[in-house]
Every structure is written in structure tokens, then in C-alpha cells.
Amino acid sequence: MKRSIAWLENAREIVRSEIDLHSDDKAMEMGGIAGKTNFNLKEGSDVTFNEEEMKKAVASAVEKMREMGAEEKIVDFLNSKVFK
Fold first, then answer.
1. Rounded distance, CA 78 to CA 84, Å?
2. 3-state secondary structure of 83
3. pLDDT tens digits, 16-27
4. Of 77, 54, 75, 81, which Cα lies nearest the Cα of 63?
5. pLDDT (tens digit, 9 = 90+) per residue, 31-64?
6. What is the full DSSP assignment across 1-52?
7. What is the rounded distance in angstroms from the CA atom of residue 32 to the CA atom of residue 64?
């Protein structure tokens, strides 16, 4: 069992060393574009990024989460990431 755990820990470090993490701004841009993706492959998708449009969509989603009873610390975290 100890050898298996040691192997997994080593593998985890190898994987982490290969991951290229994106900045928060880049992650928001990619998320905004992904949110507009049309999964009907017979039609095109809008792959432009509009920060104001994205912020409005996130604000609406956060408000819905609040209405559904999301913990305030979650709401605060999301707001801190998007509306800094």
C-alpha cells in the first residue's frame, strides 16, 4: 500500500509540473467564450469576448445562486474573482 501511495504522489507531481495554469483574466475570457458556444455543430458560434457582457451574465448567475440559498462566502468569492 505504501508503494502505491508513493507512486501516486510521484505521478501527481509529474502531472502538476506539466500543467500550464492560466491567469484569472484569461480563465474569465475563456469561460465567457465557452458560455456562448453553440453546441449545434451545424451552426456557428460567437467566439468573441466582451467583458461587460460576461460580467452581466456572472452577476445574474450569482444573484440566482443567492436566491437559491448559496452560502454568502461562495457569493463573496465569486464576486471577488470577477468584480475586482
1. 10
2. coil
3. 899 888 888 888
4. 75
5. 888 877 778 878 887 788 888 888 888 889 889 9
6. -HHHHHHHHHHHHHHHHH--PPPHHHHHHHHHHHHT----TTS-------HH
7. 18
Q: How many residues would you count in the chain?
A: 84
Contact 15, 36 (CB under 8 A): no
Q: What was the pLDDT predicted at 66?
A: 92
- The crossing angle, in degrees rounded to 10, of helices 24-35 and 51-67 is 80
Q: Could you state, in order of their start, the residue ranges of all structural domains in the chain?
A: 22-37+47-84
- Interatomic CA distance for residues 54 and 82, integer angstroms: 9
